[in-house]
What does this fold into?
Amino acid sequence: DIYLDHNAGAPLRPQVAELVCSVLMRTGNASSVHGPGRRARGAVETARTQVARLCGVPGAQVSFTCGATEANVTALSPVWKDGRGERRFTRLLVAASEHPSVAAGGRFPAEARESVPVDGKGLVDAASLAARVAELTAAGESVLVAVMAANNETGVLQPLAEISAALKESGAVLHVDGVQAAGRIAIDMEAWGADSLALSAHKIGGPQGAGALVVRRAGLHPAPLLTGGGQENWRRAGTENVAAIAGFGLAAELAAAEVAGWDEIAALRDGMERELCHIWADTVVFGAGAPRLANTSCFAVPGVAAETALIALDLEGIAVSSGSACSSGKVGVSPVLSAMGANKDLARGAIRISLGRQTTPEEIERFLAAWRRISGRIRQAGAGRAA
Ligand code: PMP
It folds into this structure.
């Protein structure tokens, strides 16, 4: 089978699988003082250091969560602690192309949320965003901004350094969803000006059900989402998922070592897109004009519905995604592509291919051959109905 859906979930790394199983078999509660508890604590702290290294911050700034959804919802809090006391945010500005776990607005009431437009390439305009934040600040509001590093559907990379530089004067806090960036581009919270960052283990070859919220400055962090226990330095109550966290840590270490070296995958992806446009000259590649992750391609051909193509590809053992995996299963237009101003009928046909480091040219060849056949058949059937 050919797996081209790495943005939905990367295959578990064999070394990680081994570690997770061995920790799971012998773990205690990381809060216990006895030997098994201390061993569990050791595993969690090793992982904390590994995840912190991936982000270039000290370990104490990493809190483990059950995934990036929880990390995003935690960060989108109207109340943050800043060491001296509390900071309150009255407004949340969220880029229009964010993942649903950010788009939903976290703990901000609906009337306090506002969407920040993206252009046709999927990019946030730093100057317009800063102008809006300045306007709100002048009116007495305090603003939390969320802009993702890399989009899960299109791979488009936001100009975070430019955005945070433009926001500097305003005192706004910036939360970054770094899920798809991890292991694919260097995470630099300082250069990005990211006050907080969400990560997910299963996108980098770790197990499902572990993630992290990382903060850039030790004292500045959101009020906990889950309360009722002192775990994670009082930032996230509940017994740590020790085995999954240990696996996340190892996956983070391995992913960090792979950040350089996506050039071959980028070349493979670019070659694939050229061939797609060769098969159908009216193919549209979403976000093609913007800086993108090396591994992601989101495209559509008029008259080819994504669901139909997806099922046909699946029957041939080729796993791809329509739009975002999180919203597939529902027939609809991806909000990300809508925000980019894509034609609705065309966007309904959006297919996302996301490559992994192990993806081979042969696999892409086989996908392209299948695509040529399947899309040809679907278009022909459509033309038959229209005639
Ligand atoms: N943000 C982005 C950009 C994602 O791609 C995902 C996973 N679909 C999430 C957040 C949510 O991560 P998790 O599955 O760990 O909750």
Summary: Residues 261-386 form a domain with the Aspartate Aminotransferase, domain 1 fold (CATH 3.90.1150.10).
